[in-house]
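Example (one chain per record):
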Amino acid sequence: MKYKFRFEKILEIKEKLEENKKMEINEINNMIDNIKLQIEELNKIKETKNCQIKENMNAGTSINEIKLMNEFIHLINIKIRNLFENLKSAQNKLDVKKNEYIQIMREKKTFEKIKEKDIVKFNEKIKKEEEKFVDQIVTFKHSMSN
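Predicted structure:
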């Protein structure tokens, strides 16, 4: 007699869902890392421009040029703010996906525990059938010897 778990298809689906959620979480983590990298790069550019403004002010550069540099810094600040909003949104998505992943993992573990218990019951049943068969053989041999 061969063992067959009645919920095997459901368990397989849960495993696939778990893998999909892992991939989604990984994609969102990559997106978060990318946004953080962009923010870091923009902050470096902003610092460089601030240093240039200070140098240009000390060197006596025209007001229009300094004004243009300040507008550029203002645009960088807007981009940074937008990236922080994107980062917050991505982190919220990540939290949702992690919760979904945890739920799927729990469901999968539940089915795995059911399968383990079912295997134990199956093995006990097989053992009882084997014992019964051995008893029948012993009884048959005993009755044949009489």
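Caption: The chain is about 90% helix and 0% strand.
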